[in-house]
Amino acid sequence: DAGITQSPRHKVTETGTPVTLRCHQTENHRYMYWYRQDPGHGLRLIHYSYGVKDTDKGEVSDGYSVSRSKTEDFLLTLESATSSQTSVYFCAIRGTSGEQYFGPGTRLTVT
Amino acid sequence: GQQLNQSPQSMFIQEGEDVSMNCTSSSIFNTWLWYKQDPGEGPVLLIALYKAGELTSNGRLTAQFGITRKDSFLNISASIPSDVGIYFCAGQPGTGANSKLTFGKGITLSVRP
Predict the structure, then answer these.
(1) Beta carbons of B74 and B34 less than 8 angstroms apart
(2) For B1, B48, B77, B91, which has the most beta carbons within 10 A of its beta carbon?
(3) What is the DSSP letter of B78?
């Protein structure tokens, strides 16, 4: 257990509404990541952070933004949710040897 | 971009049997990771490998970092019903902190009692 929680765990929202997902870690890890997991695609990196206020894009960043104002929290925002953003979202942290540990996930449905 | 190949998509075995699965790439990786994911949960790290040729065990699980750096293997011995789940590999091409993971699509393992 790497001390990672995600909230909410489930969310249903309508197309066009903003949505923010939260990842919280308790172990002071510098690197945090947001992934989405879809059938047939595996895990794909959306954005990552390498410190407070330091973030960068991953391979599927369009339509998503992130913020990290505190070491322990990494927020993922969908400014205007679309049906293609229906997915399971995982947060992860980087361990000391480069391995990553994942949170429990948030299942997001955009109707 | 880089891809990790895992096949077949599904495997069915009898309880008590051993099972091996592999992960291959056309590119070299410096780190190989193996994860298990149960339905509705996040992936759980099983084994991490950092050196070519490295063989590491975790209980009934054994994983190897291929000598070419382009593949890795996971073996589960004496399978039990709770081994059911999705197993996927991940590789990291570089050694720097900004080097990102590439994931395989996973193999769904079913264990018949």
Answers:
(1) yes
(2) B91
(3) S
Output the pLDDT for position A72.
97
Q: How far is A77 from chain B (nearest CA, A)?
A: 20
Alpha carbon of A44: minimum distance to chain B alpha carbons (Å) = 8
Burial of A44 per CB tally in 10 Å (0-12, 13-18, 19+): middle
Contact A98 B104 (CB under 8 A): no
DSSP 8-state assignment for residue A89 = E
DSSP bridge pairs for A67: A75
Is B96 or B70 the better-scoring residue by pLDDT?
Answer: B70
| Residue B108 and residue B12 in contact, taking contact as beta carbons nearer than 8 Å | no
Q: Which of A108, A103, A105 is nearest to A26 (CA)?
A: A103
Per-residue confidence (pLDDT) for residue B2, from 0 to 100: 66
The phi, psi pair for A8, rounded to 5°, reads -75, 170
